[in-house]
UniProtKB/TrEMBL annotation:
It comes from Acrobeloides nanus. This is Neurotransmitter-gated ion-channel ligand-binding domain-containing protein. It holds the Pfam family Neur_chan_LBD. GO terms for molecular function: extracellular ligand-gated monoatomic ion channel activity. GO terms for cellular component: membrane. It comes from the Eukaryota. Gene3D superfamilies: Neurotransmitter-gated ion-channel ligand-binding domain. Residues 36-129 form the Neurotransmitter-gated ion-channel ligand-binding domain.
Length: 151
């Protein structure tokens, strides 16, 4: 005879507890391998200008946030826990990530912590904030989004 505590359904005993974020990250990273050089990964880049300060006629100071998104099928974990809430990685060194270059920036300094989230379908979202992004006078602020290039 199966004894069920108050508030529990009999089926609860047959289901394993949901995987925690830590368990998912450890499992996925244990089997993850960087994509080889022939792999083509499309990246969506969102650039948000948080602040613009004109220092003089030749330079413009920006504070920006750059968010990059791409699908990395090797990071899928739907079979472990299908959830719309992502798991967070502490460092971008664990997985492949694109190198971003802003061609006309004289100096870029990261500020704050980077945020790296992985969703159950393998969508990776990587956000970074930069300060002291001086643009030279030969480039207009309106052209900033077209000056991004992933390497």
């Amino acid at each position: 005879m199966l004894t069920v505590s108050k508030g529990q359904e009999p089926d609860d005993f047959l289901n394993e507890p949901a995987w925690t974020d830590k368990q998912i990250v450890e499992h996925v990273l244990k089997i993850y391998r960087f994509p080889d050089a022939t792999t083509n990964i499309s990246i969506a880049v969102l650039l948000e200008v948080e602040r613009i300060l004109n220092n003089n006629d030749d330079q413009c100071h920006l504070r920006i946030q750059v968010t990059q998104r791409w699908i990395e099928s090797k990071l899928e974990y739907k079979r472990l826990r299908d959830s719309m809430h992502p798991v967070k990685l502490r460092s971008n060194s664990y997985i492949w990530n694109p190198s971003l270059n802003i061609e006309n920036a004289l100096h870029l300094m990261p500020i704050g912590k980077d945020h790296l989230r992985v969703y159950s379908n393998g969508l990776v979202e990587y956000s970074q904030r930069f300060d002291n992004g001086y643009l030279t006078a030969d480039q207009s602020v309106q052209k900033v989004p077209t000056l991004l290039r992933t390497l």
